Known about the structure:
By secondary structure, this protein is α/β, with parallel strands linked by helices. The chain folds into two domains: 12-136 and 289-308, 3-Layer(aba) Sandwich (Rossmann fold); 138-286, Aspartate/ornithine carbamoyltransferase (Rossmann fold, 3-Layer(aba) Sandwich), CATH 3.40.50.1370. 39% of the residues lie in helices and 14% in strands. A five-stranded parallel β-sheet has the order 7-6-5-8-9, with helices on both faces. Helix 2 crosses helix 11 (285-308). The longest helix has 24 residues, at 285-308. The model is unreliable at 228-232 (pLDDT under 50). It catalyses: carbamoyl phosphate + L-aspartate = N-carbamoyl-L-aspartate + phosphate + H(+). Heterododecamer (2C3:3R2) of six catalytic PyrB chains organized as two trimers (C3), and six regulatory PyrI chains organized as three dimers (R2).
Amino acid sequence: xxxxxxxxxxGIKYLNRRDIELIFETADHFKExxxxxxxxxxxxxxxxxxNIFFENSTRTKLSFELAEKRLSADVVNxxxxxxxxxxxxxxxxxxxxxxxxxxxxxxxxxxxxGAGIFLSKHVKASIINAGDGAHEHxxxxxxxxxxxxxxxxxxxxxxxxxxxxILHSRVALSNIFALQLLGAEVKVCGPKTxxxxxxxxxxxxxxxxLRNALEWCDVANMxxxxxxxxxxxxxxxTREYTRQFGxxxxxxxSLSKEIVIMHPGPINRGVEITSDVADSGQSIILNQVxxxxxxxxxxxxxxxxxxxx
Length: 309
């Protein structure tokens, strides 16, 4: 059995192409499991996983929890909002207290970029980064690429445009790394104020015009405007943003070809995409949600198999 080249999943930039292919092959197997009447396997019956979320999350947390339970792992949930962190406890103390309860793996979301990397150097458990600030969100990028592979047969050679708030998006950075590793061509599109300064150094092209970007691409991944990460106004108004960078049915139908629409969620309906686009046959948004469980099962299973050795 092949294994991952890493002990933790801290970011896509630490993976190689074979790692991603192995995760996808394992996810194929778990997707088949998830379609059975009994959706559970006893693979991780002796593994305990702690979900530690220092930021609010509904979908990612639910998806991880479901993946862990489908693998029969013991699950501990920890929410920083109701914890001693508010009383001044440090990150390492918090996690070490949890690990002293004999936890094997930690799934962590944290507002500070690099929190997972920092933690992996100080604790024995395997760490999965469920999002660290505006840095990376590796499992989201894996499920996005997996969903493209499922829909279009392959990621290699495909043209993908990521539209929206590139500056504050951990999803954008992880997606750029994953798509390029798998041989896709990537462009980014959005307001100049929401583009990182040296984004071209990542090997992507900036396309300021949405229509041009959509005519070029096979897949458009629409990002949410991250108001909670903004300390100032980056564009005149939401209405103005939607007029320039939002997709509606009329725009979609006026293109010379049919493209695939994706969104990491949660959707601001009527801002980045309208409901008739989100719910259309060209959208694979619900497939992304479904694939998220299989991908997270695959990641957890592969990392846990190293713990067991």
